[in-house]
Fold this protein.
Amino acid sequence: MSGDDHRLTVRLGELAQAHADRAAARAGVPAVRLDRLAAEPLRLDEDFCREVADRYDAAPMVTAGTARGYARLAAENLRQFRLIGRRASGCCRGPGRGSRTGTRGT
């Protein structure tokens, strides 16, 4: 793993822990440590992510309750992606960031 990949993985682990801590506090439950995530390598496959997003967006809305739940989940996902983007964007600069990794299934 390159130095940039390691720094980004550690930073995403920190962001995940902060989110888990806030969610636990909102729910009134004990926080769980996510330290093990910092050791996991970051493997993104942009095509796979887009495929999942396309299927997610095409999912049928069965009831008004389903639609509300879907909208809430979509809003939470967007909030998390924006948070990650703001906090991790300056972590690793240089050529190749954001390019396809070709690591689907690894």
Q: What stands out?
A: Residues 92-106 have pLDDT under 50 and may be disordered. The chain is about 60% helix and 0% strand. The radius of gyration is 16 Å.
